[in-house]
Design goal:
Elements (H helix, E strand, L loop, with lengths): L1 H24 L21 E4 L4 E3 L8 E5 L6 H19 L3 E6 L3 H11 L4 E4 L4 H5 L3 E3 L2 H9 L4 H5 L5 E3 L2 E5 L5 E6 L9 H11 L4 E2 L11 H7 L13 H12 L1 E3 L4 E2 L10 E7 L2 E6 L4 E7 L10 H5 L2 E8 L12 H26 L2 E5 L4 H7 L6 E10 L5
Parallel strand pairs: 3-4, 4-5
Antiparallel strand pairs: 1-2, 1-5, 3-8, 6-7, 8-9, 10-15, 11-12, 13-14, 13-16, 14-15, 16-18, 17-18
Bound molecules: flavin mononucleotide.
Flavin mononucleotide binds next to strand 17.
Length: about 400
């Protein structure tokens, strides 16, 4: 009996060890290969430690809307500077109902250093095991040469975390809702470049808006495919008539919705099924992103921001525009690495398929549409706080064709 129990214990220990190994083995070897969670993802089920050393499940702390700041440690001057800068937005964030949690690999006993240096009003948490950073997809392994270099500067990562994993987080900011999902994500592999306080504040205001649960999409009907192909054309003149919510639901599903719920696969193909493209949806009322799994719209900004959807004036009055953003961080396959040129090509092709779905749906419904490269990608990225791995590919404007 005891032999059996010992074997069982060994087996369990082995499985746990293999499990841990698998987790660490899947951590990328460099900061530019991390795959951060994006808006719509579930907050991972992970434990962190509070300053007094007690463990707490991160989800249990999300009793109010939360800004989660991942930083490298109290030893990192850029992190302390950034934490200090974000202090500018602190009062406004609190007014909006947010709490701010700042998470680093530092041991609980070390957290006080950041507080003293920055005189912060945030709650600091220890992720010394790096479970949270891994859950959010931002952990990477520091190579031996860099470890040595850091030691030369008096920075000892093992002493900071009390662990020998040699993992660090890519500095990142997530906004978490009380529904346990990510509302906004910003991560930058270059630890010197951080999210501006104004961009965080704007994202926090946007995320405080309402999620729109779309009605179930109509998944059959329409005109025959060959007739739709015959009708497909670009239209650049639209009436002011709005697009009803059911039609918007059908259109988004046709564009890039889930057509095989058992596997989560979509109406448009994507290279390696990376599903790298996010649709930003612009209406006179606001800006959202389309979350296909839940078939819903996640709030980005309230109010009329259609000038950011395109440079041509017909875009600014049209009832609906999409801007397609490709996430290059999703373009990874095992150890294979892909060039920036390749990712740009793949992102463009993936978006092209979605945009043709939109053209054909519009042809079927009598709607007008035009694909547009004319988007100010730089302004868009700044205003909506895109991470450097998120690229504006192009846009598409949709509406009822005007009579003239
Ligand atoms: C990638 C791409 C970018 C485009 N960019 C613009 C644009 O910025 N502005 C515009 O008015 N039309 C734009 N178009 C629409 C083309 O001008 C249009 O598809 C072309 O003239 C052929 O017309 P058709 O779509 O009616 O067949 C774009 C089309 C594609 C595929």
């Amino acid at each position: 009996m005891s032999v059996k129990r010992n074997v069982l214990v060994l087996l369990i220990a082995g499985v746990v060890a293999m499990g841990c190994h698998r987790v660490f083995a899947s951590v990328p070897e460099s900061a530019d290969r991390v795959k951060p969670l994006s808006a719509g993802a579930d907050i991972p089920d992970v434990s962190v430690m509070q300053a007094d050393g007690s463990a707490v499940n991160l989800r249990d702390l999300l009793t109010q809307p939360t800004v989660l700041i991942f930083y490298r440690g109290g030893w990192c001057p850029f992190c302390n500077m950034h934490l200090g800068q974000l202090q500018e937005a602190h009062a406004e964030l609190v007014k909006l109902g947010y709490q701010i949690l700042a998470i680093s690999p530092d041991l609980p006993a070390k957290l006080a250093e950041s507080v003293e240096k920055g005189d912060l009003g945030y709650t600091l948490l220890s992720d010394s095991t790096m479970a949270a950073a891994q859950g959010f997809g931002i952990a990477f392994r520091v190579d031996d040469a860099t470890l040595e270099k850091y030691k030369g500067y008096g920075i000892d990562l093992e002493a900071a975390s009390g662990e020998s994993h040699h993992l660090l987080p890519v500095p990142a900011v997530f906004i978490a809702g009380t529904d346990g999902t990510v509302k906004f994500a910003y991560a930058n592999a270059d630890y010197k470049v951080r999210l501006e306080p104004a961009a965080l504040l704007a994202a926090a205001k946007g995320a405080a808006g309402e999620t729109v649960k779309l009605p179930a999409p109509r998944q059959s009907g329409g005109i025959p495919l060959l007739d739709a192909l015959k009708q497909r054309r670009s239209v650049r003149s639209f009436s002011e008539k709005p697009i009803e919510q059911q039609l918007l639901s059908d259109l988004l599903w046709a564009a890039f919705g889930v057509n095989r719920p058992e596997s989560g696969m979509r109406t448009a193909p994507s290279s390696y099924n990376w599903q790298d493209v996010t649709l930003y949806v612009f209406t006179p009322e606001g800006v959202w992103t389309y979350e296909a799994t839940g078939h819903r719209l996640l709030p980005v900004r309230q109010g009329d921001h259609r000038k950011l959807a395109g440079l041509q004036s017909y875009v600014w009055d049209a009832p609906l525009s999409f801007v397609y953003v490709s996430d290059f961080a999703k373009m990874q396959q095992g150890d294979e690495s892909f060039s920036a040129d390749y990712k740009l090509k793949i992102g463009g092709i993936d978006v092209g398929h979605i945009s043709q779905n939109v053209y054909l749906f519009c042809a079927s419904e009598g709607l007008g549409a035009v694909a547009r490269a004319s988007v100010d990608a730089k302004a868009f990225a700044e205003v909506f706080g895109l991470s450097p791995h998120q690229h504006v590919m192009f846009g598409q404007t949709i509406g009822w064709p005007s009579e003239d």
